[in-house]
# Entry
Amino acid sequence: MSVFLIKTYDFPGSAWDLCALFRGEPHLFCLDSNRHSPENGRYSFVGFDPFEIFQAKGAATLGLLKERYSAYRGEPGTKATPFRSGIVGYLGYDCGLYQEKILLRSEDDLKLPDAVFGFYDCVLTIDHLQKKLYVTSSGLPEKNKALREKRAASRLEHVERALARPFSPSVSKHFPCDFSKGLGDFSSNFTKDEYLVTVRKVLEYIAAGDIYQLNLSQRFTYDTAGENVDPLEIYRALRQLSPVSFGGYFNAGAFKLISNSPEMFLRLRDGVVQTRPMKGTRPRGSDQREDVRLRSEIARSEKDKAELLMITDLERNDLGKVCDYG
# Structure
């Protein structure tokens, strides 16, 4: 039996305002669009205190997640928001290797789960276009209709009381960490010489026809010991520095994830899957004239065109595995 309660407010604020208000709640998540547009960046979503946390590691991760999620999938409800309740979390990179049956060769030094997802029955949705806030409450995981209605109402009341309190979100422009000493404080899993040797090896593989693309990544680490750093403040600083349509914060309990991207990776709407890969970047110019020059430069770049075509073809190939052609 479906139960959905919804409250609507006028809301000219941002997702960060809600994060600041609910920062003490367990397993807070924020899917944040702070570059607003009708198509990409209209909505932001905030939630906390999930009724269940799913965590798994190993090749069976996706199957276990599907099995657990199937108990709640397909719940009907209001169409007032695109995300009224559901699961939020992450899949680790190794999940792709399991799917393609590729041998894992890297050292598992972080010892993180391959997936952590929260099951959220109450979600706050900001419609930046309409300047509205929707609070939806489903009453899950209760199955009995009366118990679901009672839980949904209780959860909604908790959010309402919090929204009624005066609060002052942080507006500090200062970074939450002291990076004043420069990038020397960051450590990498590559030295410069090791990185250049690896690049030459990759070019040899490409020339031999063994591969045509390789994502050579570095991990940079900054030790925050003794600095009393709040990960949510790092996220705030990042979204101030680089506003994007697809930002995210997820409190996984023992660790936190922060993301920031201008790319829409996947969208499923009315049976149609869309991806919008982006490749090639330039800095912003000091004035409009320089912006136009840099935009023209990237549009003429054969390297950037090739890279964009390559990633588009890669996405087309991946979608072909799960979609009907045409």
Notes: The CA atoms of residues 213 and 241 lie 30 Å apart.
